[in-house]
Amino acid sequence: GAVVSQHPSRVICKSGTSVKIECRSLDFQATTMFWYRQFPKQSLMLMATSNEGSKATYEQGVEKDKFLINHASLTLSTLTVTSAHPEDSSFYICSARAPVSGGEKLFFGSGTQLSVL
Amino acid sequence: GNSVTQMEGPVTLSEEAFLTINCTYTATGYPSLFWYVQYPGEGLQLLLKATKADDKGSNKGFEATYRKETTSFHLEKGSVQVSDSAVYFCALNKNQAGTALIFGKGTTLSVSS
């Protein structure tokens, strides 16, 4: 079945540095990818919708200059957390929409646990 | 707005016990409802879904029925196994083109032998 690879699975960084998270669709082309964030004991919250070749659409309250999303190809979207601070520590998950017979299906990466010291 | 509420975890059961994880939703219109499962170290996987009222989704012994009158989509399994230990997420889709899923907080299930 379709697989989404997300890398890295865990990253620890110093405050003020930038971190890039990659999300790849391995055996299908994903015109749309979604980025979610989950704080402990909270829901998965949608951050942004990423469309290949165009600017991402951010949800209300998500800073586009802080969370840079690039979807330059049909198989890769990246999320860069710029100038990370401890409050950005969270679990980030990407998902990709894949065309399947009869409709579409969403596939998820395994997530990235970001810890900012 | 649209939202999903599911029961707090963790849920700890012995093998072969009956499982219920409650999920209720708030939505305008007629959303589709989903249960996703995340096994340790893996991505979320679709477990089952229902697209209209009274539909029953089922997979791997798990079932959930779309109850519009109670706005619920409770997940059940008659006899859990150790391998069912995972985090379970209830979610809805507004069925509008280009929209993402709205998730609950997730419920951790631990099954011991």
Task: Produce the secondary structure layout.
The complex is a heterodimer of chains A (117) and B (113).
Chain A: E1 4-7, E2 10-13, E3 19-25, E4 32-38, E5 44-51, E6 57-58, E7 67-73, E8 76-81, E9 90-100, E10 103-108, E11 112-116
Parallel strand pairs in A: 2-11
Antiparallel strand pairs in A: 1-3, 3-8, 4-5, 4-9, 5-6, 7-8, 9-10, 9-11
Chain B: E1 3-6, E2 11-14, E3 19-21, E4 23-26, E5 32-38, E6 45-50, E7 56-59, E8 62-65, E9 75-77, E10 86-93, E11 102-103, E12 107-112
Parallel strand pairs in B: 2-12
Antiparallel strand pairs in B: 1-4, 3-9, 5-6, 5-10, 7-8, 8-9, 10-11, 10-12
Strand content of chain A: over 45%
Helix content of chain A: under 10%
End-to-end distance of chain A, in Å?
37 Å
Spatial separation of the terminal alpha carbons of chain B: 41 Å
> What spatial form of chain A do the alpha-carbon principal axes imply?
globular
* Main pleated sheet of chain B: 6 strands, mixed
Quickly count the helices of chain B. 0
Total DSSP E strands of chain A:
11
Low-confidence stretches of chain A are: none
Report the C-alpha radius of gyration of chain A, rounded: 14 Å
Overall mean pLDDT of chain A stands at 90
What profile does the largest beta sheet of chain A have?
7 strands, mixed
**Greatest interface:** A-B, 22 and 18 residues
Q: Indicate the multimeric state.
A: heterodimer
Give the % helix of chain B: under 10%
